[in-house]
Amino acid sequence: MSTLTEAPPPLTPTAPEKKPPRKRGRLVPYWLLLPGILWLLVFFALPMIYQASTSVQTGSLEEGYKVTWHFATYWDALSEYYPQFLRSVLYAGSATILCLILGYPLAYLIAFRAGRWKNLIMILVIAPFFTSFLIRTLAWKTILADGGPVVGALNTLHVLDVTSWLGMTSGDRVLATPLAVVCGLTYNFLPFMVLPLYTSLERIDGRLHEAAGDLYAKPITTFRKVTFPLSMPGVVSGTLLTFIPAAGDYVNADLLGSTDTRMVGNVIQTQFLRILDYPTAAALSFILMAAILVMVTVYIRKSGTEDLV
Amino acid sequence: MTFVNWLKRHLVVIAGLLTLAYLLLPNVVVTVFSFNKPKGRFNYEWQEFSTAAWQDPCGVAGLCGSLSLSLQIAFWATLGATLLGTMIAFALVRYRFRARGAVNSLIFLPMAMPEVVMAASLLTLFLNMGAQLGFWTILIAHIMFCLSFVVTAVKARVMSMDPRLEQAAQDLYAGPVQTFLRVTLPIAAPGIAAGALLAFALSFDDFIITNFNAGSTVTFPMFVWGSAQRGTPVQINVIGTAMFVVAVLFVLASMVISNRRTKQKA
Amino acid sequence: MITVTTNKTDHGGDIRLSGIAKTYGSFTAVHPLDLTVPQGSFFALLGASGCGKTTTLRMIAGLEEPSAGTVHLGDQDVTALPPYKRPVNTVFQSYALFPHLDIFENVAFGLRRRGIKSVKKQVGDMLDLVQLGEQARKKPHQLSGGQQQRVAVARALINHPKVLLLDEPLGALDLKLRRQMQLELKRIQTEVGITFVHVTHDQEEAMTMADTVAVMNAGRVEQLGSPTDLYENPRTTFVANFLGTSNFIEAEVDSKSGDDIVLKAGGGKLVLPEARCGAATTPGGKVLVGVRPEKISLTHADDAGEIPEGRNRINGKITNGSFIGVCTQYVVDSAVCPDFEVYVQNVDRDTRLVPGADVVLHWSPAHTFGLDAAQDIDAGVEEGAAA
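ok -> structure tokens follow
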């Protein structure tokens, strides 16, 4: 007790400070924001403006480019490359749906059924990231190789007949077909689907399942009426995190596809880095950006979720 | 019938494990083919077992140079993005200020933008400014696209922090600076670490943005890309496998250590 | 100005709030409030959630800036001082123990921030005081709720604050532990002699521990006094209902006889000592007559003749009786009040007292209190039940 009854504390503030109310650094947030926001403004927002300006320039590499408000570039780019645009949407859309179908059970498994294996499975989902995705994508060349076991199995099961009929494959090949590209896209962006799904599933109180069961819901009804609606935030952010990068990707189409599977990313890359037709490349990139922003906005509005990642 | 019932009950588990297998299959292939001795320039078909590549991982011209360059860029990009991102995250969670909506959009947009769009527009900026493409332009680009992810990770952690902890520190005679250093920062540390780890992984593995803004500088992903056109040396499989194993061991070790620590204290 | 008188001479730990108020936009959390808490007292702010009690506490701690008014500690105006410069410490709701520091470092935190180098002895003594000497190197999450609570108290007390503020400190504990900690806190307060200001929504807790209780409602202090005073002489229906249970009868002032007022209610007469009436007593005026359930005796109608003269009586019929151990709680339907509550001690149980039985309720006029009739009879009922 001695410690408590000792002399009063040494802490006694000197001369009473006068009001007015304490100022708690009203400028602090702005100083905290300044460097990062400046970085984003200069290296993210400003480039967009440069790109917009480039897209309406005419000229040549030798003579230099000038802004001539040549909007025809957009029309020309669209009419020449609309197949690639369509392919991008189609491939990225298919990959997103496949990711959702494949990723949901895995996320569900980690969230509710993995028990003490939970951490290990989490590690196994994330660990492949540490092997460069290009190396892993190249591995699909081996897996889907002509005459390999996978193609052989698909052939025996007559899956390839179906996909051929759908125009996804041709003959006995999988490599260099749309199927290979979609398969690669699905593979590459699957973790971006699984992780948000897992996060929102994990937040669901396990007792809700029991409550639903108690109220005469069959497991499938419980899933449809309780689990899935509650995981919607994860579904929304997962689909966006999959679709957006997939739509702009050119690596899978390049490594696993052929000239018939070129996506809009491939066109932008070639125009920019090989053909050096900057206005066309800028216009294409701008259209892609606008299209994705519109789609994302509509999608977020429809699904009614505000918080994304 | 019992088998059907068993199947029904474990359908989710089976489907989940199949997906997991799909995710891991390429890594298995990469590992197996790191022991291959290919006949031609490309390492896509199994020929015969060999440990030659493992004995000489740097045996291909430029490979280890590109790896070291990627590690350096990832290091500095992580440092820059974590610093700037943490500051933004604190400003967003802890302060009221004008233009919050605009700031939030500016943070969000880079994550909602296909990489190829950011890559192309950044290149137009650099070309217009006449910047020399290379190490610095790559670093600038990497900090830019890692920033938003760090903000998101740190923000989540700071938001879940009980504001009473900082009030308790103030109540116990810690001024604003002391409160930040002794309480806020240590508690936010896991979020900052998660953001930094994410930034490192994103930067190290980035290809698309680097491809546009690297000029003639070759990072590790650029090296792999180039070799996919010219011929894939077994050594890239060796590096890929080694990084996978190191990452898994690192995580497992940290888990074992933290487990042991809690057990000791309990 | 509400003042609690004290005969102590040292006023260094007095808390004086003058006209203190807090508004958030158009919402007023605390209406201008004058309050003096004398040095060394155990003071409780009691009220339902959202009544402004925590805001008041936080203004004393410096965690909330008052919109108006001043806070004095002793003779010193601390209104403009940030929390880290006030000689006041807080035990936070759900404790706010630093999760990244062990128990020792949590307790040493305040000492270290004030530049005290050798903290080992002090922290050790303090941990022994709260019986946690063995747990010094554990992290907060490894302790039980009761232990965490004691760490929170130790962490604040080690700084010898002039005032210790406790924000619902026992809210997270189970009932039994709460009772134990109430006595423990009371003991510590008596030993260290520091002013304690305790915020709680639990009326029993406030009454067990505090010397003085301020009952708050909607940003205002309804009544302030000792626990007995508040319980026996509530000034408003809110206080009467929030602290325990009260029965109310609407009555009309009939006449005065000596120190008593005679009231008419439902054809019968009731007597109320004038001193216990908080309302105007002009003949013909309305008064709410209150009586606590445990003050009432219950006699079967057949034995009505045995009731002594001079007691207030009401006839009724039992509608419900629940046996709860120490007593039986009856609900009685009467002409003046449809659900009169009566608690009868289980001494000699009258087997005739079952639902449907005709009974006479009677109690001493000295246990009757009178309130202004122009207020809500049920004010504070919900809040009291929730607490």
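The radius of gyration of chain B is 23 Å.
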